[in-house]
Amino acid sequence: MLDIKLIREEPEKVKEALRKRGSDVGLEEILGQDQVRRELLGAIEAKRAERNSASEGVGKLMREVGQARKEGRSSAELEVEVGKLKKRSSSLGEEIAELDNHLRPVEDSLRELLLLVPNIPHETVPVGQDASKNEIVRRVGDPREFGFEPKAHWDIGEDLNIIDFKRAAKIAGARFALYLGAGAQLERALINFMLDIQSREHGYTEVFPPVLVNKESMTATGQLPKFAEDLFKCAADDLWLIPTAEVPVTNIHREDVIPVEKLPVKYTAYTPCFRREAGAHGRETRGLIRQHQFNKVELVKFVEPETSYAELETLTADAESILQKLELPYRVISLCGGDLGFSAAKTYDIEVWLPNYNEYKEISSCSNFEDFQARRANIRYRPLEGKPLFVHTLNGSGLAIGRTVAAILENYQQEDGSVIVPKVLKTYLQMDTISV
RNA sequence: GGAGGGAUCGCAUAGUGGUCUAGUGCGGGCGCCUGCUAAGCGCUUACUCCGAGUUAUCGGGGUCGAGGGUUCGAAUCCCUCUCCCUCCGCCA
């Protein structure tokens, strides 16, 4: 959520910034509602102030009436005064209620409108309307030369009997996977490996959150109200399945004021993630790349505003370190304005090399949300002096497990159909190669 | 699922219709005093919205888990909801 004061005071600057992401949100309606809101509020508060002082007067006079009766004096005159004040207060009450009835829908619609405005891109974000304008920041590792035609990971998985998509479809439907034997163990090994690195080497606190959350949590991180179509919902209980650990982990500190000396707060979490993938029909229907349910190890940071872009660099480096240790070739790209997610001010995607695709494929997305989520979630920090301020939030995948499995199978495959286990996983898996 | 109890300013608690502008203790901050330390003394210590002002700040509204209601007036009375605790039932 953007600051209404920023929209009010510098609407042209906001419009220009949003144009950078190809969003033509009409700020006029917001500005109009804001204007009406402030006018109504002024009128209501003036009447409230008057009513408060009238009621206070009633209280004082009532005490005097009591005193007069006790002393046997006549209280008739005082009681007439009390009657007048009560009447005045009562009619003010009606006027306030009337104005309140006008104000409420204005405030509701203003909030709804604000929740639909995307974040402002950072000045370093490349200009462009779609993915073709994304910038390659760096490439790490060289794609391997194959002396044979590399197979797709879904064929490798089925040939080795470690991934079964047909049975997954029987159990649940399309876009689900059943891992078996060494496949299931590889999935588990990767979860443990990533959590171990992020918590032991990079200082993240490991958490294990709920994967069903309420709508307040989904709204705080920006999935709701705009992207309900992408989420699985448990309607009977008004709960939602998380599309990423970002949601429950960021919401750990919803409504909190964090002492500045505790910042940066860093969490890593493994969770399954659930996405409806509505609108992705026919795209990447095979394999592990696009699933309704997948595992992910997530990184989340709460930081002081001044440090958030430096923290984005280290968060991205923390995610990259996993690929380096797994010795998988990858590149880092900076998303252009048009490709940026709704809540993000800046995003680096990390893309891993997939031989069968003969291209780089997203395996992690690392974003700085600045105060966009913090404002929705009311997450603040208390500086050494002065009022509480909004933190900046960041998160990134460290990494998506299913896509990592796909990358390992494709990059480490051998001509005989077996797959070499990456060095760092050998102790986790207790095997050197996966073969039939 | 059933029955009962609870939610107040960082923490603990007081407050059952009008000096509650929410008291007190602890904790925190500032200052005074004191060879040092400890103690003592004084002051101070929530957030938010609207308006005014160059800042400091000032005026007003709101907030005692949340939302409604009764009333001239609600922390206090009534209703609904959320969460926590105890007991019963069920259960990995």
Detailed description of the structure:
This protein has 436 residues and is of the alpha+beta class. It contains 13 helices and 18 strands. It has helices at residues 4-9, 11-19, 27-70, 76-115, 153-159, 165-171, 182-201, 215-221, 246-250, 308-326, 372-377, 401-411, 426-429; strands spanning 135-140, 163-164, 178-179, 205-207, 212-213, 233-234, 239-241, 257-259, 265-274, 293-303, 330-334, 346-354, 359-368, 380-382, 389-390, 392-400, 419-420, 433-434. It has an eight-stranded mixed β-sheet with strand order 1-11-12-13-16-10-9-4. A three-stranded antiparallel β-sheet has the order 5-7-6. A three-stranded mixed β-sheet has the order 8-14-15, with no helix packed on it. Strand 12 and strand 13 (359-368) form a beta hairpin. It is elongated, with a radius of gyration of 29 Å. The mean pLDDT is 93. It binds one RNA strand of 92 nucleotides through residues 37-38, 41-42, 44-46, 48-49, 51-52, 54-60, 62-63, 82-83, 85-90, 92-93, 257, 387-388.
Explain the layout of strands and helices.
Elements: H1 4-9, H2 11-19, H3 27-70, H4 76-115, E1 135-140, H5 153-159, E2 163-164, H6 165-171, E3 178-179, H7 182-201, E4 205-207, E5 212-213, H8 215-221, E6 233-234, E7 239-241, H9 246-250, E8 257-259, E9 265-274, E10 293-303, H10 308-326, E11 330-334, E12 346-354, E13 359-368, H11 372-377, E14 380-382, E15 389-390, E16 392-400, H12 401-411, E17 419-420, H13 426-429, E18 433-434
Parallel strand pairs: 4-9, 8-14
Antiparallel strand pairs: 1-11, 2-3, 5-7, 6-7, 9-10, 10-16, 11-12, 12-13, 13-16, 14-15, 17-18
This protein binds one RNA strand of 92 nucleotides through residues 37-38, 41-42, 44-46, 48-49, 51-52, 54-60, 62-63, 82-83, 85-90, 92-93, 257, 387-388.
